[in-house]
Amino acid sequence: MLRITCPYCGARDHSEFLYGGDATLVRPEPGCDDMEVWYDFVFLRDNPRGRHREYWQHVQGCRQWLVVERDTLTHEIFSVEPARAPKKAPVLTGVAAK
Amino acid sequence: MGRYSIADILLKAAGGNKGWPRVWRDPAPKPEYDVIIVGAGGHGLATAYYLAKEHGIRNVAVLEKGYLGSGNTGRNTTIVRSNYMIDGNTPFYEWSLKLWEGLSHDVNFNVMLSQRGQLNIAHSNAQMDAQRRRGNVMRLHGIEAELLSREEVQEMVPHLDFSPQARFPIYGALLQRRAGTARHDAVAWGLARGADQRGVDIIQHCEVTGFLRQGERIVGVETSRGTIKAPKVGIAVAGNTGHLAAKAGLRLPIESHVLQAFVSEPVKPLLDYVIGWSAAHFYISQSDKGGMVFGGDLDGYNSYAQRGNLPLIEDVASAAKAIMPCVSRLRIVRHWGGVMDMTMDGSPIICKSPIDGLYINGGWCYGGFKATPASGWVFAHTIARDEPHELNASFTLDRFRRGYQIDEKGAGPTPNAH
Ligand SMILES: Cc1cc2nc3c(=O)[nH]c(=O)nc-3n(C[C@H](O)[C@H](O)[C@H](O)COP(=O)(O)OP(=O)(O)OC[C@H]3O[C@@H](n4cnc5c(N)ncnc54)[C@H](O)[C@@H]3O)c2cc1C
Ligand SMILES: [Zn+2]
User: What is the ipTM of this complex?
Assistant: First the structure.
């Protein structure tokens, strides 16, 4: 079980969460008519073996969308922060997030 | 190293089974080859085998970071079938099944193909219609398919839940009699031996860590055992395609996810067929040793770890119990995970890459074991001739950009729903 420390609810099993995938993708403007930009956004992924920023929604808790930084090889979680403030420093980091 | 034969077996048995030679060599890497294949899974080995056998290209190395067959080839649930429906997939998987049918003789190694038949169970009238449509597409391609009624299914697999209170009532099933299972390890070993006998160097414990460039071209690889040159490099590394392609500067329509499989304690013959369940993602068969072999969904988050997590075990076990209540008394003795290359349409990529000298075979999602021989066949062709075989002409990388996805399930551009 992964333990995700929700900034609102505390440490919870990952089975309470819905996975939302790669959080580094930036959705093009709705009016964007450059197909290459859409192709990039819809289909291509960095798919790193290592640190990965990804969305999780706490569906069985506060229902907030979160951004979790997790290692895809070791599954270690480094940080969890609210998705609505992605530019701010992580709310919980390192050991505290485990 | 000769051929295996009954005379050989009797002779060696009389001598206390002492005189068996090793099955493939353990050569040191040469500085240069005509072709390098990265990954000694079934696909890489089949590619090398057919390069040597069908195209006369024998100066080939297969580089493997672990031991051969240590990836998904040795981790899968061994289902082999060709009941696909979408253009591009149907003829490819059927050619694969035809190759499977002759593989043991071709490689002179028993891959234990067991054509016990596979049933896709339907649980509603709509699912019966979908199975009927799939069966018709198959028959138009000359592949046998039979639509079974509820009563016929009950006669063949009486242990499914046919009770009035069944959570998922059984309406019928689509049967492919030629489908079944094969012994995964034997496939890797047989192809390795066949390739080795034809001069291919299989180099284990040799991890590819980067690519050697000459201008824009790729002309070799950097490995944990030094630089090895070749004008053509083919990668067949299953779940690691994204990771390795990134070292060549490519971003792919792929995410890596973990898929688990399970085996129960062995029991007497209980299930004669392979069962695929349409209510959710679940399949089950019984191994020759008696264990019930089954699996279901992905764990659900990006992962390169070859191990699974607990919530999925509960999920798969409840699916097993819903369709076949009697398995609830069995103990699960082992479960394991493999890293899957999930593409954005659920279909594979076998093509020349945008970089000269680099060829890609990947994106096998859940279903690449059955594809092993045909995948090697067409990848060898693509590498030898520098153009696709007609059977992999639609498995290109640029199909995503051009809007020609091969989306068998109609799930849309998601990496984890196929
Ligand atoms: C649990 C599970 C169940 C499955 N069930 C089925 C099924 O029932 N039917 C079916 O058809 N398919 C099934 N599959 C899918 C199937 O197993 C795979 O698609 C198929 O085996 C892939 O074969 P491969 O040769 O491409 O990969 P692999 O056998 O994984 O071989 C790739 C090899 O590349 C090596 N490698 C990786 N990176 C490097 C590097 N940098 N340098 C050198 N070597 C490297 C790896 O060590 C590995 O040995 C299942 C998969 C899993 C995990
Ligand atoms: Zn919460």
Answer: 0.92
